[in-house]
Amino acid sequence: MHRALAPDGTQVWLVTRYEDVRKALADPRLSLDKARSNGGYKGFSLPPALDANLLNMDPPAHTRLRRIVAKGFTPRRIERLRPRVRVIAEELLDALDGREEVDLLAAYCAPLPIIVICELLGVDAADRPDFRSWTDGLLAPATPQHARDSLGSLYRFILDLIAAKRAAPGEDMLSALIQLRDEEDRLSEDELTSAAFLVLFAGYENTMHLLGNGLVALLTRPDALIAARAELTPAVVDELLRFDPPPQLAIRRFPVTDVEIGGVTIPAGETVMLSLVSAHHDAARFPDPDRLDPGRTDNPHLGFGHGPHYCLGASLARMEVEAGIAVLLHRFPHLALAVAEEDLEWRDSFRNRGLRALPVTLRQIGECHP
Known about the structure:
α4 packs across α6, α7 (131-139) crosses α8 (144-167) and α10 (189-219) runs parallel beside α14 (314-331). The protein is mostly helical. The protein has a 3-stranded mixed beta sheet with strand order 1-2-8, covered by helices on one side. It has a single domain (2-361), classed as CATH 1.10.630.10. The protein has helices spanning 18-25, 48-51, 61-70, 75-94, 104-109, 111-121, 131-139, 144-167, 173-182, 189-219, 222-230, 234-243, 276-280, 314-331, and strands at 2-5, 11-15, 30-31, 101-103, 254-255, 259-261, 264-266, 271-274, 336-337, 359-361. It is globular and about 55 Å long. Helix content is 47%, strand content 8%. Keywords: Heme, Iron, Metal-binding, Monooxygenase, Oxidoreductase.
């Protein structure tokens, strides 16, 4: 347990050990509701129409809304998407044939999840905006005004999208949520807008950097890359999630009563931050934690959380990473970084770790198979 300062000057309690983080993630005494803060927490200043999302709720409101949104993320429905995700990946890589060097983040890691999440929500290809610039503006803004502009653009896009779906509903997830709002009154207008915001934001942002961070980890470790080329098993994906997860911290928590964590009593209302990346490199839980081990089987990582707030989109993100990396390594068997690892540029964000760019050489030589 550490007393720490966030970049904005907020005083927080930082939890770093695996067992403490895991228990805290499922502890009902640690609230996600910002109303439980004693006033020290700043964070994002979201409008009410975007703030009524699962990351700001406790049961029973959280339980009710989660059941509604979860219908769009059942494992069976996600698995049916796998062939389509592979087709999207192949089409994106078709555009790279003949090129020797490319920014893989811009050309592949970002557009793959954008296309997938937009198809889930029923966004036409011609209407897909620049989500990457907006999410970068929220998580790693150049200025406070940059953050406000990015949020405003994303908010207006969601409002326009909901209006368009109301006028012409389809078979997509957003149309189904609108029906639950308009015909069955099972969620409020703010909850509808906030759900669309969370699916767009989280479904794109984390998957993009799961792909980017995972590829860097593989391309800088030849043994792990050989294993991944041979077979990209779920165990390999789990190890990538453990080794270098984009979310460095879980969503902040506020004790509803004084709570003891790691031998330290945290007063009610103070801000608690749970370090996922530290927990994942805790030698007390993961032997040789700083080694990327594709054969690691005892791997209860927390990359998708734990407990009642476990990530709804975990199955989708895992499937996209499995399919996205497998297709890429099959198509370009000689894929390599175009710069030294130490020359890669990372975004300035303490919340989410992600690259600014991923320059690679493709060097497709003949027909190769994994």
